[in-house]
Structure formats: C-alpha cells, structure tokens
C-alpha cells in the first residue's frame, strides 16, 4: 500500500497536464469565436477547468481551506451562465 500515494500524485499530475492542454484549446476558442455564444461557452468551460484545477490542488496538498473558494466560484459561474442564457432566450423571440 505504500505505492498508493505515489500513484495518486502521478495521476493528479497527469490530470493537471491534461487540464492545461484543454485550457489552452478553450482559450483559442475564447479568442477566435466566431460568435458571442461560442465565447460564452468557452468562458464557462474555462471556469469549470479552473475549478477542477483547484480541486486537484486541494487533493494534492490536503489543504481544505480552499473549499469555500471552490463553492463560491462555482455558484458565481452558475449564476452567470443562467443569466446570460436567459438574456439570449429573450433575444431570440421565444
């Protein structure tokens, strides 16, 4: 069982690398568009990736003091997404 923490650190390191690559691809979509909704979805995905990165950091360090930050950012991201979706729905005439 002594190899389990080393394996966990390796897996979490790989997760951080994959999140970084994904964030780079999402940043390209955020900058290139082509529409405002594409940029909005890219920003929402970027916030979600940031949250996952924070959770992985919490898992690596064992520092649970960042859990309220994760909850607050996720609530703000959810409220922002639903607000924009409501405005887009009103703009389409539905």
UniProtKB/TrEMBL annotation:
It is found in: Cell membrane. Keywords: Cell membrane, Membrane, Transmembrane, Transmembrane helix, Transport. GO terms for molecular function: sodium:proton antiporter activity. It is a multi-pass membrane protein. The keyword Transmembrane applies. It comes from the Bacteria. InterPro entries: MrpF/PhaF-like (IPR007208). The keyword Cell membrane applies. The chain crosses the membrane at residues 6-28, 40-60, 66-88. It holds the Pfam family MrpF_PhaF. Its main location: membrane. GO terms for cellular component: plasma membrane. Belongs to the CPA3 antiporters (TC 2.A.63) subunit F family. This is Multisubunit sodium/proton antiporter MrpF subunit. It comes from Actinomycetospora cinnamomea. The lineage of its organism: Bacteria, Bacillati, Actinomycetota, Actinomycetes, Pseudonocardiales.
């Amino acid at each position: 069982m002594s190899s389990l923490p080393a394996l966990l650190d390796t897996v979490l390191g790989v997760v951080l690398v994959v999140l970084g690559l994904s964030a780079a691809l999402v940043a390209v979509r955020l900058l290139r568009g082509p529409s405002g909704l594409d940029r909005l979805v890219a920003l929402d995905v970027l916030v979600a990736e940031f949250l996952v990165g924070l959770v992985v950091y919490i898992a690596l360090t064992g520092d649970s003091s960042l859990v309220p930050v994760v909850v607050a950012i996720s609530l703000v991201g959810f409220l922002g997404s639903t607000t924009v979706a409501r405005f887009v729905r009103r703009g389409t005439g539905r």
